[in-house]
């Protein structure tokens, strides 16, 4: 049986307009990066602030792209190459995503929040899979190009679509949800993030509430009833015509109410009341933040009218994503230490969650819990106080040593007792040799910071740690611990 293509040339032309050149074609996928393009993909040449993908059209075609969408003629493509010439490739990609949504009969879920978006999206991908074919955003493709790209990649026969919507300015989610048009909209949590662009937490909640503007008639909103912004969010949803709600959280009013969570180093056992009835399940990932995310996921399942028991059984297969709390053992000549990679991003709420997970870890007897933290960015005038405010959760987690980098992390470093201070450096590159020298077998080491703090540098440096003695050993931690 011949597989139906994702896109025909005529369908793309109908969606984006433009001028077709070369022979007819069909595409099995859509790509914007020639490095991970698959044979048969349509290559969309986006022009960004640092790179112009038009420079890689020839390479994409040589690698097997079936055609390329361009807004200028590349100089090095073969004559007669299959191209569609448009005025603006980003606008064309957006139009293609809109066309994909329009033709789809999938039940669509949109997820936003200050933290937990990607994890919740991946959990939904997993728990919806027993009920039909699921298409979901790749990685954190949640912005002005990631969302339309994810839509354009949605298979014709998808039965569910799950899309992550991100923002750091007002109006961004409004534009994205206009494309996605979800049946169910989820707000995971509202936290103090992007304060450089928002004056208050309520302003962040207002911006997140833009997601309700795209909810389809008869659709549902998923809200944390324990959030201080619950009333605001519900009012905004109702103003957008949303009449169906599923609420989760710790409060007695929540329809999916957390009764108890047994939190362990690598998993959690959850007891909840769903619609007033007891409901117990297990999570194969640690942390109270994951418990709350799982309740939001089950709220989506309930809003879609699907079986909760079948869905919850999938939580035992849940995995933490790379850079978002994944754990691994790193071997050294004298033994191994545990590395928790939470380096992808950070805000005050996600930092507290990560420190809580570190606090439940089990270092070898005589070994230590070590936090390696980089600046949390985009926190505006409150940044130093929000960094210093992490001292209490760090101490409550019984973290033995903090190694920190960045200008604002000095506030946390200085707020700690002297015996908890490992070292501070200007950036992750400068901090790396210090932590390489300090880590010992049996330790549990957690690395976290905003993406711009480049904490992945430290993660990679620790993964390749070689503690063999040499003539040029890095300096040890300042306090010798």
Q: Mind explaining what this structure looks like?
A:
The protein has helices at residues 9-16, 57-63, 89-103, 117-128, 146-152, 172-180, 201-208, 230-239, 288-303, 308-313, 348-359, 383-388, 391-396, 409-415, 428-438, 456-463; strands spanning 7-8, 19-21, 26-27, 29-31, 41-44, 67-70, 83-85, 107-112, 134-136, 160-164, 184-187, 220-224, 244-249, 256-263, 268-274, 277-283, 326-332, 335-342, 369-374, 401-405, 421-425, 444-448. Helix 4 (117-128) packs across helix 9 (288-303) and helix 15 packs parallel to helix 16. The chain contains 16 helices and 22 strands. The strands form four sheets. A nine-stranded mixed β-sheet has the order 9-10-8-11-12-13-14-15-16, with helices on both faces. Helix content is 31%, strand content 22%. It has three domains: 7-87, MurE/MurF, N-terminal domain (Udp-n-acetylmuramoylalanyl-d-glutamate--2,6- Diaminopimelate Ligase, Chain: A, domain 1, 3-Layer(aba) Sandwich), CATH 3.40.1390; 104-317, Mur-like, catalytic domain (UDP-N-acetylmuramoyl-L-alanine:D-glutamate ligase), CATH 3.40.1190.10; 326-463, Mur ligase, C-terminal domain (Protein-Tyrosine Phosphatase, Chain A), CATH 3.90.190. The protein has 481 residues and is α/β, with parallel strands linked by helices.
């Amino acid at each position: 049986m011949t597989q139906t293509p994702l896109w025909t040339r005529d369908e793309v032309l109908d969606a984006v307009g433009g001028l077709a050149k070369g022979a007819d074609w069909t595409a099995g996928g859509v790509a914007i990066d020639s490095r991970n393009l698959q044979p048969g993909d349509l290559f969309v040449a986006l022009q960004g602030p640092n790179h112009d993908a038009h420079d890689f059209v020839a390479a994409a075609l040589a690698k097997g792209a079936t055609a390329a969408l361009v807004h200028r003629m590349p100089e090095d493509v073969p004559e007669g190459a299959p191209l569609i010439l448009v005025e603006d490739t980003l606008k064309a990609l957006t139009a293609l995503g809109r066309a994909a949504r329009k033709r789809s009969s999938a039940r669509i879920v949109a997820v936003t929040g200050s933290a937990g978006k990607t994890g919740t999206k991946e959990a939904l991908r997993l728990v919806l899979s027993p009920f039909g074919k699921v298409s979901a955003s790749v990685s954190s493709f949640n912005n002005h190009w990631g969302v339309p790209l994810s839509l354009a990649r949605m298979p014709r026969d998808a039965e569910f679509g799950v899309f992550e919507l991100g923002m750091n300015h007002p109006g961004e989610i409004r534009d994205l949800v206009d494309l996605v048009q979800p049946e169910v909209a989820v707000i995971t949590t509202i936290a103090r993030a992007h304060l450089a662009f928002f004056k208050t937490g309520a302003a962040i909640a207002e911006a997140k509430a833009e997601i309700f503007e795209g909810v389809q008639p008869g659709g549902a909103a998923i809200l944390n009833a324990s959030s201080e912004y619950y009333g605001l969010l519900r009012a905004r949803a109702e103003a957008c015509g949303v009449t169906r709600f599923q609420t989760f959280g710790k409060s007695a009013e929540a329809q999916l109410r957390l009764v108890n969570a047994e939190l362990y180093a690598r998993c959690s056992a959850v007891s909840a009341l769903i619609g007033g009835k007891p409901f117990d399940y297990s999570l194969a990932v640690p942390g109270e933040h994951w418990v709350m995310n799982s309740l939001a996921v089950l709220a989506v399942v309930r809003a879609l009218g699907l079986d909760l028991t079948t869905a919850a059984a999938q939580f035992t297969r849940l995995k933490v994503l790379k850079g978002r709390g994944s754990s691994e053992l790193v071997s050294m000549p004298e033994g191994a230490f545990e590395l928790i990679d939470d380096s992808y991003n950070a805000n005050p709420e996600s930092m507290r969650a990560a420190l809580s997970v570190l606090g439940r870890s089990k270092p070898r007897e005589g070994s230590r819990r070590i936090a390696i933290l980089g600046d949390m960015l985009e926190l505006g005038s409150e940044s130093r106080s929000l960094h210093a405010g992490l001292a209490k959760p760090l101490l409550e987690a019984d973290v033995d040593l903090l190694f920190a980098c960045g200008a604002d992390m000095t506030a946390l470093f200085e707020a700690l007792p002297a015996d908890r201070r490992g070292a501070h450096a200007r950036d992750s590159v400068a901090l790396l040799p210090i932590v390489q020298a300090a880590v010992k077998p049996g330790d549990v080491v957690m690395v976290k910071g905003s993406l711009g703090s480049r904490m992945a540098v430290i993660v990679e440096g620790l993964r390749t740690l070689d503690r063999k003695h040499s003539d040029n050993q890095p300096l040890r931690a300042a306090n010798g611990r």
